[in-house]
Amino acid sequence: MNHGPRAPETRGVTVTLLAALDLGPEIEGMAGRELRMRLVTMEPGGVFGPLHSHQDRPGVVYILQGTITDHRNGIATDYGPGPGWPEDRNTVHWLENRGTVAAVEVSVDIVRRQ
Hints:
By secondary structure, the chain is mostly beta strands. The protein contains no helices and eight strands. It has one domain (about 10-110): Jelly Rolls, CATH 2.60.120.10. A hairpin with a 2-residue loop joins strand 4 (about 70) and strand 5 (about 75-80). The N and C termini lie far apart (about 30 Å). Strands 1, 2, 3, 4, 5, 6, 7 and 8 form an eight-stranded antiparallel β-sheet that branches.
């Protein structure tokens, strides 16, 4: 499976947990999982990598400021501000900020509780 050039490691990224909800008591069959909302800031030239999968970790993204480039399947797509991209079980990607201002996103996903 070739996804283009190797994705760089994460740099220039700050992640802040805004909220988390234990889904076990809320939805039958969701024990050990939580709904998580994070604020992610990518400085100009920042990268959220390396190439990673969202299998077993679905989510959605909304861009508050700037532009984020999503790299998947050898295709680079720019998002923002506004609705971003879905992250489903088939998502394998990495992200970067090619712009000159910080890009800020809200990321909501379901993850295994740690």
